[in-house]
Write a structure and sequence with these properties.
With about 290 residues, the chain is α/β, with parallel strands linked by helices. The strands form 2 sheets. A 10-stranded mixed β-sheet has the order 1-2-12-11-10-9-7-8-6-5, with helices on both faces. Helix 7 packs across helix 8. The N terminus is likely disordered.
Length: about 290
């Protein structure tokens, strides 16, 4: 093994896991399969660690991780006991009925995480234990094991109507656990929902933070209620994304960070459009957003 590879492994041990200070913070999520999901090789970092450039290799991170590439992850990456705490539901919201997948307690949850799928998806995408390298199974387990709740709704449209439906879902979950954090996460075209919700002052008041995974850039984010409230945003993106260019999202991050806005970014080297959904370290993201 080369000296360079040893250095990468050392950097991974030093930086890819949640920092000791954060691990000791009140409310930090307990580890769950961190040795499989969090041991990512750090290539570079800047801005005091707020921007992290992480190694990604398709042969290792897809073919080496999946029993059937992109269809079924190896069993070591999943824990299926969480299925006892999950359900498919249809919520009656002011904007109309909304089909959701839920994992965790419906009322009194310590925190809420909402995941918005991209084009062509529905609630099944965020509920699938075996696709995307088992990353949604980990997210479900992190929520349930820490007393939280995870929702994956079926978004009917990625416009103002879709944003209104999710704003209603945010209000619903906030009412079920008053005063507890709510985190909105959006992947790919689902990012349009995050940006739309960011303009809804009532929804923003109930949110604690957002994460955008391989999403579009909002050039007018600085005009939003979310920006004015200075609530944290965590971006993850593949450097080779051909749908939404990483350079556009990095430019937004740089503007925000330069202005002192609470923001982080993980860039997966050579990663494609779907890489962030597979590789995002949910424990790192949630711990940072919940600690702000």
């Amino acid at each position: 093994m080369s000296t360079v590879h040893f250095r990468f492994l050392a950097l991974a041990a030093a930086f890819s896991l949640v920092s000791p200070a954060l691990s000791q913070a009140a409310g930090a999520l307990k580890p769950f399969k961190d040795e499989l999901f969090s041991a990512q090789i750090l290539l570079d970092q800047r801005d005091g660690g707020d921007f992290r450039h992480v190694d990604y290799q398709e042969m290792r991170d897809i073919n080496g991780r999946d029993q059937i590439p992109e269809k079924r992850v190896k069993s070591a990456y999943v824990s299926l006991g969480v299925r006892k705490a999950q359900a498919n539901e249809t919520l009656a919201l002011p904007s109309g009925p909304l089909d959701v997948f839920r994992a965790g307690q419906a009322t009194g949850a310590a925190f809420t995480v909402i995941f918005i799928h991209g084009r062509g998806g529905d609630r099944r995408l965020g509920a699938n234990d075996y696709t995307f390298g088992g990353n949604f199974n980990r997210l479900k387990n992190l929520a349930v094991e820490n007393g939280g709740v995870y929702y994956a709704p079926s978004v009917k449209s990625f416009d103002s109507a879709g944003a209104t439906a999710i704003a209603d879902l945010i209000a619903h979950t906030a009412a079920q656990a008053p005063g507890r954090p709510v985190i909105l996460t959006c992947a790919s075209m689902g990012s349009f929902i995050c940006w739309g919700v960011s303009r809804d002052a009532k929804a923003v008041a109930a949110l604690s933070g957002m994460a955008v995974l391989g999403g579009a850039t909002d050039p007018d984010f600085s005009k939003s209620a979310f920006h004015k409230a200075k609530k944290p945003v965590f971006f993850t993106h593949g450097s080779a994304d051909k749908v939404y260019a990483a350079t556009d999202q990095i430019a937004l991050y740089d503007r925000l960070h330069k202005a002192g806005y609470p923001v982080r970014f993980t860039l997966f080297e050579t990663g494609s459009h779907g890489t962030p959904v597979r590789m995002t370290d949910w424990r790192e993201v949630l711990n940072w957003l919940l600690s702000r």
